[in-house]
Amino acid sequence: MAIPKHFIILTLGFLINNFRIGAQCPPGDIHFSTQQQLEEYASWYPDCSTIQGNVVIGVPYGTSDVYDLSGLKQIQKINGYLNILNNPRLISLSGLNSLKVVGDYVNIFHNESLQEIHDLKNLQETGGSFWILYNQRLSSIHGLQSLTNIGGSLDISHNPSLNELDGLHPVSTSPALDFTLTQINAIRIMNNGRNLQQETVPQFAHFYKTDPVLTFRNLSGLPYSTRAVETSYLYTYIDQLQDPNQMLPLLNKMEKISIDINDSDLNWEFRLLRQYFKLKHGSDPVEKKIRDMRDFAKSAGLHEKLIIQARATKFLAFTLWDHFPDYEQLFKTYHHLEEIMNQLSPNEFPNMAQCYMIIGRAHYYFRDYREAIHYFRKAETLPAIPFNTTFILHSRNNVGLCYQQLKLLDSSDLSFRQIIEDPGEFPIEIWKGIASGNLGYNYYLRKQYDQAIPFLERDYLTAESIEDWGLAAGSLTPLADIYIRKNELNKAETMITKAREYINRSGQKDRLRLLYPVMAKWYASLGSKDLATDFVDSTEMAIQIYNDKFNALKLLRAKQELNANELALREIQKQKLIQQRNSVLGLLTLSFLLGMVFFYQRNQNHKRQEEIRELKLKNTRESLDHARTKLLSLTQKIRENNEIIERMQLNYSSQPDFKMIRELQNATILTMDDWDHFKQNFQMTYPGFIEIMESRYPDLTSSEIRCLCLQKLRMSTKDIAAALGVSPKSINVTNHRIRKKLHLDNQDMLIDLIENTG
Question: If one looks up domain 351-418 in CATH, what number appears?
Answer without folding.
Answer: 1.25.40
